[in-house]
Design brief:
- The complex is a heterodimer of chains A (196) and B (311).
- By secondary structure, chain A is of the alpha+beta class.
- Chain A is built from three helices and 13 strands, in the order ααβββββαββββββββ.
- Chain A folds into two domains: 33 residues; 152 residues, Immunoglobulin-like, CATH 2.60.40.680.
- Helices cover 19% and strands 39% of the residues of chain A.
- In chain A, strands 2, 4, 6, 7, 9, 10, 11 and 13 form an eight-stranded mixed sheet that branches.
- Chain B is an alpha/beta fold and 311 residues long.
- In chain B, 61% of the residues lie in helices and 12% in strands.
- In chain B, strands 2-1-3-4-5 form a five-stranded mixed sheet, sandwiched between helices.
- The chains are: A alpha+beta (196), B alpha/beta (311).
- At the A-B interface, α1 and α2 of A face α9 and α10 of B.
């Protein structure tokens, strides 16, 4: 009887090994799952997850890697201000030894997709940009926008290798209503540019 | 004396096939060495077996007269010294009779004396279902011993072991002594390679069809899940790239929702594939275990209990 049980046990163990080996192979070779990182700075949900709450000033894209001599384009955006916005003053800093500003164009939020011409001006001092924009609209001086949108497009050229941040200076940035009331900025997201 | 042993050997072999209860279909009894005396005895045996089979309704015995007419085409039944034809010829006879199995018995003079051989062969696979061989000398010795054993029984004493020995030697009782082409391990490895193969090997047709059918359905579901998974992954990667590049606030939110949808879909299809794989593996393992457990194996006490404890 003992021999029979021993034999049976050995058979079961052998079958166990076969089964476990087979199942392990299946699980090992099963398809993998992908992780996603939804972090578009124009996405108010992604910004909230990142701890940046509206109204916020952000830049798109958040990171980019370029080579020497390449052009670098960065968009400046206002996120979910949820009130009447008429004027913007954006004070932006960057490392002028690494990138050189070529030009700045007004964003579609202020131009209303080319339908209007905003009051748009900027000044550049070594590594510092001040953008002043005023939405004129069709109604005149009291026109405003209420939605998330594109303020300006900044065009740079990469000069030297290194990493630089293109940053808003919150102490000097301002958002105002048609009645010149200040809209409080709750968060910012800056861009980083790596030049190889 | 030979026909009596043939009856004996056929009865035992037939008993074993009925007890195994795995075989269904029709069977032809072919006795290629029968003489005029044995014809009568075989006729009685066929009648007896036919009545048993009617009770089980598992095996249909082909009319012995029809069998004889076909056998007569292959061998001269009037030749008293005719020999057992080759195995292939016996299978051909069975196929011509449209029998699923053929059983034949005959005598061959070999190195160890006259050997009576009874064998049941599948006409489709050509494999032996059951084989038994008896040395006639053992039978004679056993019969002599039986009379002595009877004497000891009459006086109420246990017979000596030496007398019991010929009784045991009459039939091979240990499984290793019983010739059997098919083994449980043979069924196991076949089913481990391909579900159902071992079951067909063991003549268990229902599970032989059932296991591969279940596996086929599961593989079909796995293939469906895989195509859905691949589609979701492709869409996820495209949607994710578009989301990163998009600068229109409304489109960004729309792409976010789409990307999350594809992400959830690819994860759920991946989980479904893993569960599917586990199910396939489990059914595969059950199929292999079933093949082993239900596989053909020599029966230990097919010829009765051990007459005496071995020393």
């Amino acid at each position: 009887m003992k021999n029979i049980l021993t034999l049976l046990y050995q058979k079961i163990i052998r079958l166990d090994f076969i089964s476990i080996g087979f199942l392990s192979t299946i699980i090992f070779f099963s398809c993998k799952t992908y992780e996603i990182k939804l972090d578009n700075p124009i996405d108010v949900i992604a910004d909230s997850i990142a701890g940046v709450f509206p109204p916020a000033l952000t830049m798109h894209p958040l990171t980019q890697i370029v080579s020497n001599g390449d052009s670098v384009t960065i968009g400046a955006y206002i996120i979910d201000h949820d009130t009447t916005l008429a004027g913007v003053h954006a004070h932006i800093t960057y490392n002028a030894e690494l990138i050189q500003l070529d030009t700045i164009l007004p964003g579609v939020l202020l131009t209303n997709n080319g339908a209007n011409t905003p009051l748009f001006t900027y000044s550049v001092v070594f590594g510092t940009i001040d953008i002043f924009a005023w939405f004129l609209g069709e109604e005149g001086a009291l026109s405003y926008v209420t939605e998330t949108g594109h303020i300006a497009e900044l065009y740079f050229t990469a000069l030297n290798s290194g990493e630089t941040f293109v940053e808003y200076d919150t102490t000097q940035c301002e958002l105002v209503t048609p009645l010149d009331e200040i809209i409080s900025i709750q968060g910012i997201r800056n861009a980083s540019v790596t030049i190889q | 004396m030979t026909p009596r042993y043939k009856v004996l050997i056929i009865s035992i072999t037939f008993f074993s096939i009925i007890k195994s209860a795995d075989y269904t279909g029709s069977i032809a009894f072919i006795d290629v060495t029968m003489d005029s005396a044995s014809t009568i005895q075989y006729g009685e045996l066929f009648l007896s077996m036919s009545s048993q089979l009617q009770a089980t309704s598992q095996m249909r015995v082909i009319d012995p007269e029809i069998v004889l007419s076909v056998v007569g085409q292959y061998t001269d039944l009037n030749d008293p010294e005719r020999r057992i034809p080759d195995r292939e010829i016996i299978i051909s006879i069975g196929q011509e009779l449209s029998a699923d199995y053929v059983m034949y018995a005959g005598t061959k003079v070999g190195q160890y004396g006259s050997m009576l051989t009874g064998e049941i062969i599948s006409t489709r696979s050509g494999g032996a279902i059951s084989t038994i061989q008896i040395n006639i000398l053992d039978v004679i010795n056993a019969l002599e011993a039986e009379s002595n054993i009877a004497s000891w029984t009459l006086i109420g004493e246990d017979p000596p072991y030496e007398l019991m020995q010929p009784r045991r030697d009459l039939f091979p009782k240990l499984p290793k002594d019983i010739k059997e082409d098919k083994t449980p391990f043979g069924a196991l490895w076949r089913s481990a390679v391909a579900p159902g193969w071992g079951q067909f090997y063991s003549n268990k047709r229902l599970p032989g069809f059932a296991f591969p059918s279940v596996e086929a359905v599961l593989f079909g579901v796995l293939f469906y899940n895989f195509t859905q998974y691949s589609s979701a992954v492709t869409s996820l990667q495209e949607s994710s790239k578009l989301y990163d590049k998009e600068t229109d606030p409304d489109e960004v939110l729309k792409l976010r929702k789409e990307t999350i949808g594809y992400y959830n879909a690819h994860k759920s299809y991946n989980t479904a594939m893993i569960n599917n794989g586990i199910m396939i593996g489990t059914v595969w393992a059950i199929n292999a275990i079933h093949a082993y457990v239900a596989g053909p194996r020599p029966q230990k006490f097919i010829h009765g209990p051990e007459p005496y404890r071995r020393k």
